[in-house]
Amino acid sequence: MRIFWRANAVPGFARHRRVEHVLRDRGGPGRAVKSVWQLYGAGAVGSQVLVGLPMLHRLAQRFGADLAVWPFDTEEAPLTLAEIYPAMIGPEVAEALAARPGQIPDEVQVRLMAGAVLAAEDTDALLGVPSVPDLAEEGWILGTAAPGLLRAGAALSRTCR
User: Is 97 within the bounds of a domain?
Assistant: First the structure.
């Protein structure tokens, strides 16, 4: 049995968030973004979201006011959690995997994404979001406003290893 998502099948919930539309419309790395509502099939991330939400809750309980969840929390905190989308640095990940066959792709993605964020010259640009009223309900992906910064940081972190 196949289940297909119909646009606006659930009142109030669009198939894709605004940030996913931005990535798709812009093209380039990350354009094949999947919906957080997709629970199974190739590229599904919905199950990862469901697993991640309880962890997010536990971290919030543990760190309290020392933890901010971007872009929902507007107060600065020593620790900030943000949604990432490693496919935005897909070419750099592919180069790293080609350079050293046998690596675990997810590990390479996470390492390069962490290096990209650390190497970013303008972290405020990585945290850029449009000012739309319901963004606080949808969330945003780190670096969507400045994909060039992420890619440059990933390339730099790759060469520094």
Answer: yes
